[in-house]
Design brief:
Layout lengths: L17 H10 L2 H12 L6 E5 L5 H9 L4 E6 L2 H14 L4 E4 L12 E7 L7 H14 E12 L4 H8 L5 H5 L3 H10 L3 E11 L4 E9 L1
Parallel strand pairs: 1-2, 1-4, 2-3, 4-5
Antiparallel strand pairs: 5-7, 6-7
Helix pairs in contact: 2-3
Length: 215
């Protein structure tokens, strides 16, 4: 696997916070948001699904539980988070492939997946990595396949986001607006890029947006 020596922002901001990541995200409504994202994707039996920035594998495992007949792959640069994800899969007996890598250099062939998911990871990326990531997602999607993305957005996302992501740089949060995401999707070649819905987390204090786009 190439690029594994690159730096990255861990899911919880710091390695020592990783054991707290899942319970905190669940407490503030992350599991509910992921279920909503999955419902919007209309996954079909027999499809191939990729979860980029899968972290500890919560969404990846949810996809496999909901659709046992699909092939699910999770990708993340953080080996510690992936270790937790693989442990979750073993405990439930779920057959999930977890790979270490970066979303802007996906280690997969062209047109490999029917669905790609991005759950609360897009704001982790540096500005120059966001367009590259979306172009890579476009590349690995099959014609007619779709990307389903949920993330913190809105003009105050970097302020409220600090309550959840205190170690995260506000610079990564502030350029995560609805218009910016839609523009990047269009520039990457996606069709019918739309905001599907708006939701809230952190007891209503943090806005999240759901996006869908087709190859």
């Amino acid at each position: 696997m190439t690029d594994i020596q690159r730096t990255y922002l861990p899911a919880a901001g710091r390695d020592w916070l990783l054991p707290l990541y899942d319970p905190i995200v669940k407490l503030i409504g992350g599991d509910r948001a992921r279920r909503t994202l999955l419902t919007q994707a209309a996954v079909q039996p027999g499809t191939r699904v990729l979860d980029i920035g899968c972290g500890t594998g919560t969404l990846t495992a949810l996809i496999k539980r909901a659709y046992p007949g699909v092939t699910v792959v999770g990708l993340d640069p953080d080996p510690k988070a992936l270790a937790r994800a693989r442990r979750k899969a073993r405990q439930t007996g779920a057959a999930i492939q977890f790979d270490q890598g970066f979303s802007d250099n996906l280690p997969y062939h062209d047109a490999s997946f029917d669905r790609v998911f991005s759950s609360f990871m897009f704001h982790h990326l540096a500005a120059d990595e966001r367009g590259k990531t979306l172009r890579e997602v476009w590349r690995v999607l099959k014609p007619g396949g779709s990307l389903h993305l949920v993330d913190f957005t809105g003009p105050d996302a970097h302020n409220h986001g600090a309550l959840l992501h205190a170690p995260h740089s506000s610079e990564r949060m502030k350029d995560n607006s609805e218009d910016r995401i839609l523009t990047l999707l269009s520039q990457a070649g996606f069709l019918k890029a739309v905001k599907v819905a708006t939701g809230a987390m952190l007891f209503g204090r943090l806005q999240i947006n759901y996006f869908r786009a087709f190859r």
